[in-house]
């Protein structure tokens, strides 16, 4: 049964105007309120009821996008009453909808033109809701939610606030079954921030286009505590697949959503087996990963599924080099370690990290600890150790932190790297001994370090203090010097005080002294006055040998407080027939070739008492004084030479010559 409303006339004869919301008529002249009366009649074939039914069906077809059927019914509306408000509304609704489903731009443009025309006519002919329009809405009856929903979209588009408010009062969102209507209403309500209504539409999930709804919520719904829940409700594999991986990658790049919301989307994509490029995701959201927890949250989601080695390598490069962030790096290494993700770090990557100055030393140390838990080839590890120990220029405190991490027990430091540091590197100054101790505490095989002590003592550039400390430590570890290196060390420019102390330690530790070491030591003295009795005593503890040239330098020129005893000892060690050999000396500008006793008389600078004893020691081994000598190439008796140069002899030489009758004829 249709409902028809009839208004009473005002007693004053004034025009009545209908108030749709209060459902009363008001006299425009005197303001009298006139109640509406309803009369119930049967449907008339050609009356208002007939046009209402056709309009209803037309609007229902449009709401469900049955455009062909809607067009036929619209033509029926035209035939029944082309001037009726329902026919006008049907025209507007049909053409407005047709814009979105048009098959060409020309068709869409034509529909838009018609909307403008019919909208203008509606505004002119029906500026307010009149009785016929009220009757039309009342005639829609039950189950008209799709129509009301669609009309709300129409009036919202036209900006008709009066009709929009009226329709809104009749709207039952939970009863709308048209996916198209729900889709358009969802856009409007999100735009208007009527989020409770959005919830109602999505709750009617069996009658919405999930793909478009999900897209709309992701793109335009404000990021609040509800958004993630709505996304979960709308999300399924089929829907996500329809939106495509590319769509979600652009979401991560462009959306301003929080990290929590993006994490939900990423997790849902994992469950749907849709894998955005992990590298793209990390790069896109890295500005949001400003804490360790946020970075860990996202990376855990990313690595909940299998990620290719190439993607992991890209993420690693991004974290370490492209956009270095301590929180991101720390979380990345924690996640891949926890999830046993294969990452092959190359030496240069770690070295580049160690060279960087982005982080505090404590942060850099923590990252290094995590790096060393990953798989790094032995050769790459050696490059890392060699770089940091021997080339890095971090400030001292930072180096201490890093070296403590690198040189833990069992650390695979190579022999060459250890040698380079011990012998050649002086970066750490006073801290160097601690580092050397740590190197040996790793368990490095000392056997393969070979002659490290020899090389260190001979070639290090360490300060005197460091050289003493470290060489002492190496000696306590049992290292000795090669006898040849030991000789080099004795002949080096090292101060005698330190040299003597070190020689004692080395000899006590098992360093072998070559028999000819004393010989070379004496010959090496640039200034014979630098002769050291202590060194002499150390070198003569075991068997040794000397030659005439070294002995001659000693006996003629070296200053020695214990020369008599030392001379006697050396004479016994001479490895040749001293009596039968001659040496060359320069005396008073004369080039002489004579035996060692003759040379001693002419050149000695000892006291008479010492000189007398030493000369006697020489004569005791059968060396004769008055034999031929060569003076500037001429043969001459020694007596004759000293007699001719008596005035040029030193007092000691004169006294020795007198003692041994060098100035007498017989």
Topology at a glance:
Layout: E1 2-7, E2 16-19, E3 24-27, E4 33-41, H1 48-63, H2 67-81, H3 85-101, H4 105-125, H5 131-139, H6 145-158, H7 161-170, H8 179-191, H9 195-203, H10 210-220, H11 227-234, H12 237-243, H13 245-254, H14 259-271, H15 278-285, H16 292-302, H17 309-322, H18 326-338, E5 344-345, H19 347-355, H20 361-371, E6 375-376, H21 378-390, H22 396-406, H23 415-424, H24 432-441, H25 452-459, H26 464-476, H27 483-490, H28 496-508, H29 517-524, H30 533-539, H31 548-557, H32 563-573, E7 583-587, E8 590-594, H33 596-603, H34 608-619, E9 628-631, E10 634-637, H35 638-644, H36 651-659
What does the model show?
There is one protein chain. The chain has about 675 residues and is an alpha+beta fold. It is built from 36 helices and ten strands. The chain has a four-stranded antiparallel β-sheet with strand order 1-4-3-2, covered by helices on one side. The protein is rod-shaped and about 180 Å long. The chain starts with a strand and ends in a 7-residue tail after the last helix.
